[in-house]
Amino acid sequence: MTIALREGPDVDVDAIAELRASCDFSPLSHDTIAAQLAGSRWIAHAYDGARLVGFARAISDGVTTGYVSSVMVDAAYRRRGIGRMLIAKLTGGRDGIKFVLHTRRDSAAFYATLGFADAPDMMVRDRR
């Protein structure tokens, strides 16, 4: 298996929607996904041939803080290092930036292996 990693906003929105569904993420409209892409500072996507099998993005001021979001790897491609490659692409060379993320409990151990730690001092205001 050869996985190609790409960067930037040139990603098929419909392919992202399909990947979201396969990863049990909540469905979003085409326009919402397009707006997420437009509002992201860094975007990484992984392909097996033409098939989108992984995706991640980060929003940031580019100087001190970044928020990693929408990290997805197709279930059939998990445990092959794709998630690790996506996070490395987003965070690599940006050691001066503090990256934060929200994660499902079952993914916390994975992020811990990448240097993320529990942050009990964080707060969240949910969507209204």
What share of the residues does DSSP label as strand, in percent? 25-35%
Shape: globular
- C-alpha Rg (nearest Å): 14 Å
Distance between the termini: 43 Å
Helix content: 25-40%
Return the string of H and E elements.
Answer: EHHEEEHEH
Strand order of the largest sheet: 1-2-3-4-5
Counted by DSSP, the helix tally is: 4
Low-confidence stretches: none
| Overall residue-averaged pLDDT value | 95
Mind describing the biggest β-sheet? 5 strands, mixed
β-strand number: 5
Structural class: alpha+beta
Report on this model:
The longest helix is centred in the first third of the chain and has 10 residues, at 13-22. The protein has 128 residues and is of the alpha+beta class. The termini are far apart. The chain has helices spanning 13-22, 30-39, 82-91, 108-113, and strands spanning 4-7, 42-48, 51-60, 65-73, 98-101. The chain is 28% helix and 27% strand. The model has no long low-confidence stretch (mean pLDDT 95). The protein has a five-stranded mixed sheet with strand order 1-2-3-4-5.
